[in-house]
Amino acid sequence: MNLITDAWIAVRRRSGAIQTISPAEIVSAISEDPIVDFNECRPDFNGAAAQFLIGLLQTCATPGSGMWRDWYESPPSVDELQDAFLELKEVFELVGKGSRYMQDQGLEDAEPKEVASLLLEAPGGQTVRNNADHFIKQGGVSALGLRNAALALLTLQINAPAGGKGFRTSLRGGGPLTTLVAPDPNIEPLERRTLWHLLWLNVLDQDQLGQLTDAHGDQHQALADRFPWLAPCRTSDPKGVGETRPSDAHFLQTYWACPRRIWLEMDADPGHCSLSGEAGPVVHRYRTRNYGANYQGPWEHPLSPYYRTKEGEWLPLHPQPGGIGYRHWGAYVFAREERGRAAAVVRAAKNDFDRPRRTLLWAFGFDMDNMKARAWYEAWMPILKVSDAVYPEFERRVDELLASAERVADAIRSAIKEAWFRPGLTVRGDLNAPLAAFWSATESEFYVVLFGVLEALENNAEDRTLRESWFVILSNTAMRLFDEWAASGDFGHENPKRIAKAGLKLRNILNGKTIKGLLIPREQAA
Length: 526
Description:
By secondary structure, this protein is α+β, with helices and mostly antiparallel strands. The chain contains 17 helices and 16 strands.
């Protein structure tokens, strides 16, 4: 199976038709019945397919300076894309002799494992031995068809968590957050609401790409410097090369990094894929060994946001318990260099005025607890272009809006805890559900206020009414959720007096200077 010439990516067209395509066919029938979404059997496979195609476009079709908009307004033909991709046909063989896509040839005597272990939520060996696989049982996935094997392999390499001694994490660490730019259906005309336009929005031009390559040596121009499976693995055991740093590779290896040493074992007889039910060649096992490439140093993946540590090191962000929502908008979209770093493709969407004025952010990833995948999260949020003239004041307003919501969330947690439990009692239980309800209930209103504040600043108008409305939204939501949750627990001995006292305290906090005063300073409220 060749990942350039064969059809292996499941997609959905605007008509609802489901199809499996080769990469170049992403632009097929784009005027009549365009492809609008992926249709893989798992959401993490959809995310992996998107990153594969973005990496392929960035590798084979990086636009010249000022030329990005050409293919956004007039997409290429299937033949044009295929011509660009065919130069790398030999690099993307999934099975057969010789080098294989994202696999290590030197594993003939390595440990064999069931193919289900390629899936990130699969229980580890110790979990199975201890019969502790309560949520994902072993034996559910015994075979993967070739296209799902390719997606599982890619998903593991780009998300690889810590996997025991010497089993390396992905280039962005275990379970990184990915943030992609997408067309905004409220702004873009129908002909640009396609999967092609989403993919092309995440391709950088030569100048933008050049800004990320300083840490990479110009001497690394061989194909193996981009696609590490074309050369012996840069092992990180005591006899190996140690770390793999940006100066050891071409920048484009960022998209094709292989921290895990894996070799898929093809079955002689066809079968059925456990995930999709498709008949055909299958993989039941793979071989693996620890001490693969250990990616360290100042790598910057164009599809992930970063934060700065106290020591000044930039590290990629990861999804956390509680999901993805507007409270992350500042870090994922609006971050400035001194506070955080939005993904390079998001920076291009905000700063390149050849690109659409308004787009959406598609954020997704695994919430990992060391080796265990606790959850898969994804969310959509707007990306705004903000002029330099209003940026400082808009930044201050964003901080105020988000800080006030965070403080209200903390106040809700404390109030419900005080209503549920007597003072000094050790709390055992989950207080996150009311907070999830709070963030969900206020999300759409946040963006309404956000857009309104930006419009007011751009027109040199007063935004006090908007800030007052945000305070009312937060306060009313907080009191409603408190009333719903304070008396909802099965605690046997609810205390009405304690509940009333906690509710009064919550109301006083909401109207105090820490929250109301943040949005409506006293001199303005008078």
